[in-house]
Amino acid sequence: MGKGTVSVLARGFFVLHFQFLFLQLRRVGCSPPKDPINCLSPSGTSNCTISNTYGAFPDRSVCRAADVVYPTSEVELVAVVAKGTMSKRKMKVATISTHSIPKLMCTDGVEGLLISTKYLNRTLKVEPTTMTITVESGVTLRQLIDEGAKAGLALPYSPYWWGLTVGGLLATGAHGSSLWGKGSAVHDYVVGLRIVTPAGPNDNYAKLRVIDTTQPDDLSATQVSFGVLGVISQVTLRLEPLFKRSITYLEKNDSDLGDQVIEFGNQHEFADIQWYPSQQKAVYRIDDRVSSNISGNGQYDFIGFRSMPSLELAIIRSLEENQELTNYGEGKCVNGKLTTSTLIASAYGLTNNGIGFPGYPVVGYHNHLESSGACLDSSENGLITLCPWDPRVKSQFFHQTTVSIALSKVKSFIQDVQKLSELEPKALCVLDLYNGILMRYVKTSNAYLGKQEDAVDFDFTYYRSSDPMRPRLYEDIMEEIEQLALFKYDGLPHWGKNRNIAFVGAINKYGSNAEAFLKVKQRYDPQGLFSSEWTDKVLGIQNTNGVTIIKEGCALEGLCVCSQDVHCAPHMGFFCKPGRVYKDARVCSSALG
What we know:
Elements: H1 3-23, E1 37-39, E2 46-50, E3 63-69, H2 74-86, E4 91-94, E5 113-116, E6 123-127, E7 132-136, H3 141-150, E8 153-154, H4 166-172, E9 190-198, E10 206-212, H5 216-222, E11 231-238, E12 240-241, E13 244-253, H6 257-267, E14 272-276, E15 281-290, E16 299-300, E17 308-309, H7 310-325, H8 329-345, E18 350-351, E19 362-365, E20 385-386, E21 398-406, H9 407-423, E22 437-442, E23 455-463, H10 475-488, E24 492-493, H11 511-524, H12 533-538, E25 574-578, E26 586-590
C-alpha cells in the first residue's frame, strides 16, 4: 500500500474520527475491562495467569501462579498470609484492574500465590471532625473521592484516572499535579495504615502491623511499598474540606516553555501542561481554588478515558499500523493535529453543567474535576464499546515512558527535546495521537521510594508494534528522549509505568533512602516471600544487569539500550547509533537516519 492510498484512507478516517470524538459527549454503555486473573481449574482459583489491563508486560512474558485467593476481611487476609508463610510460598498482591505496566504482580514460577484485593473494597470510617477517611486497600480512587464528598471532604490531589485502587496507587507512588502544600502524591496524605506481613511461629506466621505518624521509619517505607512488604489491609488518609476549583486551558507557543514551566507551577495550585512539541504548542492548565460562593457545576470527563466503539478502535489502530509500515510520518502529523485540536476545542472533556461547554472558566466542586474514567462505568455490552486500550479487541497498544526530572534540570531537558524536534520536525507527531506530553508537578516526599526533590513528571505515550521485532517510525528519536530523561538528567521512573530500561540503576538515585527502605523490607519479610526476581533486580538486591534483557531486538521494546546492531533490526535497516543531541545515547536508527 503506497502513501497515496494511505492518504485517501486517512481523509475518510479523519472525518469519521472527528465525528466519533464528539459523539462521545453523549455515549453511554460500555463493556468493563476483563478480570486480569484467569484460572483454568473448575473452581476458578487454580492454575492461573495474570496480566495487566493492557494485556502485555514490557517483556511480553506470561505470569503464572498456582492459586489465587480473594479474602473478604482483614481476618481472612491474615490467615491467607500465614498459610502462605508456613508453606514458604511466593506471594503477590493483585488488584481488580492491575493498571501497572511493569511486572509488580508477578510471582516467581508456577507455585506462587496471588492475593486479590477485589473484595477488600469497603469504606470503614469517615471522621469529619478529624477530616480523615479509612478504607480497605481494594477501594478505588473513585470510591474514595465519592465517599469523602458525601461527608463534605476532599482528597486534595489525585491521579487523573480513577480506576486505580488505593493499595495499588500507594505501591507505585501515583500522583496528580501540584507544587503546593504537601504536593500531589496521594501517599503523602496517608496518616495511618495496616499491613499484613510474614512472621515466625511465635506470631502464628503472619503479623498485622498498625502504623501511624508516630512511626516515621515504617510509614516512610510503607507509603510507597513497591508491593514487596506485604499486603496493605487498610489505609487512613487526611482530607480537606470540600472546595471549588476554576479551570481555564490556555494555548500558547512553546518557545519559552523552559522559562515558564517553574513559574507556572508555583502560580497555580493544580497547574499542569499538555505539550505538543511537533506543533510548537503548549496548553497551560490554569487551575486554582475559588470561593464556594462562585456559581458553577463543572464536570470533568476526559475524552481519552471514555468508552469507544470497537469498530472505531480498529480503524484507528489499522491506520496507524499502515502509517508505520509505509513510513508515512506526514500522515501521523495530520492525524495528530486533528486529534489535539479536537481535544482542545472540546476542553478535554470539561463541561460547565455536565452537558455543554459554553466557555472558560469552568467552575465546579473539586470531586467532580479531579479525576475521571467513564469507560469503567457501565455493564457488559458484548464488547461493542469499551476502554480504548482493551486488549480483547484491536485497540490502542502503546509504550509509556514516565519520568520525573528535578526542577533545576527541567529547562535544559525541554530545550534538548526541542532541539530533537527541530532536527526531525515530523518525529514527535507520534505523540500527538496520544495527546502529546503530559507535564505534572510533584514535590519532595517523605516516602523512601517517593520523589527525592521537587520535579516535573513527563508522561510520554506512543505506538507499540504488535510484533516485538518490528522497529517503529522515528524509533531513534523516542529512544533518545527516553535516555535523555533517565540518564543525562537523572530522572526518576514512575514505579507503575515505563519500559525495562527506566529501572536500570534507578534505585541508586535514592541513595540513603533506598538503604532505609531495604532495612524495613528485611525486617518485614526476611525470606522475601513478597519479592520476585524482577523486584529484586529493580531494588538492586540481585547484583546482575538488573532488568536488562540482552537478546536480538531487545532495544526495540526497551528491554535494553543497544550496544550492537543485532539489538535493533539490521535486517530491516535499523542499526545501533549514537544520539543526535545526546551523543552518549545509543538508539536504533534507520540507515537513512
